[in-house]
Amino acid sequence: MSHEEAFSELAAVALDAVSVEVGDAVRAHATVCPECGPELASMEATVAVLGQLAPVQQMYGGRAAGIRSRLVMRARAERDVQPGTETGSADLSRGVASLAGLGHKITPVSQGAVGADAAARRATPPATAAPMRTARSERPERSRSIMGWMALAATLALIVTGAQLMRVSADRNSIRAALAARDSSSREDSLLAQIAEKDAMIAAMGGADVKMVSLATESAQQPHGKMFWNRASNDWMMITYGLRSPKPGMTYQVWLVTDDAKISAGTFKPDAQGKTVMHANYALAPNALRAVAITEEPEGGMPAPTGPMIVVGSATL
């Protein structure tokens, strides 16, 4: 994975929104990249902090049990002080005993104390008490507080994620623009190279100093190619057509035949249509060439002809 591709996926990897293969590839790149590594670590730290903005609090178990016990005792006491009720003392005494750690065991002393307290309550009108703040009234406030924190965390996460996505999108657009410009430059260079090659072909095939040799088989004088030799620049260009492919493990080798030697001008293999365009540069005396020949040789070529002659052309005609 290239640096540009990995950098464009950093935010998605930090949010765990990509496939396992992409995540592994990006993290592998980030471990060796001085730019992507710190950036990915910063994004992951931001995501981790978002989950801790609204801590969960749990009520202490003993406190909840105490509140419940007091509420039960208060309800029993209010029921016992109603007129015409004679069984309140026993129930209230049980509540007092429970708070004292005696369970439901009733003693004469505790029962008498409870009876006296109940009589005093009947004689004295109940005073108006301020509303009691219980656990039930605290829960909505705590719930509202937690919901507020959660809303704030969600808003912050949305802002951070949006900012990261905007930056990543901008970087991705910049990378795409750079790649498009590079591709355009590569295409332009390729076209210039093709034009230069065609100009070289035209120069090799035309001019007063260009000598042409027709290539044909020995059995039938049907042309299978032409060799153009620009004696002023020592450029050679060979064009073949209708040649069969060489045998497996073999190749075609071009020879420049003079009175003293057979000089190798390179090896080639034709395409599926038997066509070949071959260039070479070799200095040779203007009147030294006697013939051009092509033989079938082992792959890589040979220092001297060893295989059968495929085509040949005389340069003295």
Can you describe this structure?
- The chain is built from eight helices and eight strands.
- It is an alpha+beta fold and 317 residues long.
- Among the domains are: 65 residues, no CATH class; 105 residues, Immunoglobulin-like (Sandwich).
- It is rod-shaped and about 140 Å long.
- About 9% of the residues have low confidence.
CATH architecture of the domain at 210-314: Sandwich
Shape: rod-shaped
Secondary-structure class: alpha+beta
Assess the beta-strand content as a share of residues. Answer: 15-25%
Helix and strand element order: HHHHHHHHEEEEEEEE
> How does the major sheet shape up?
4 strands, antiparallel
* Residues in helix, %: 40-55%
Helix count from the secondary structure assignment: 8
Find the CATH topology of the domain at 210-314.
Answer: Immunoglobulin-like
The Rg value, from CA coordinates, equals: 50 Å
Strand order of the largest sheet: 1-2-3-6
Name the CATH superfamily assignment of the domain at 210-314. Answer: Superoxide dismutase, copper/zinc binding domain
- Mean pLDDT, rounded to whole units? 76
Briefly say what this structure is.
The protein has 317 residues and is of the alpha+beta class. The protein contains eight helices and eight strands, in the order ααααααααββββββββ. A four-stranded antiparallel sheet has the order 1-2-3-6, with helices on one face.
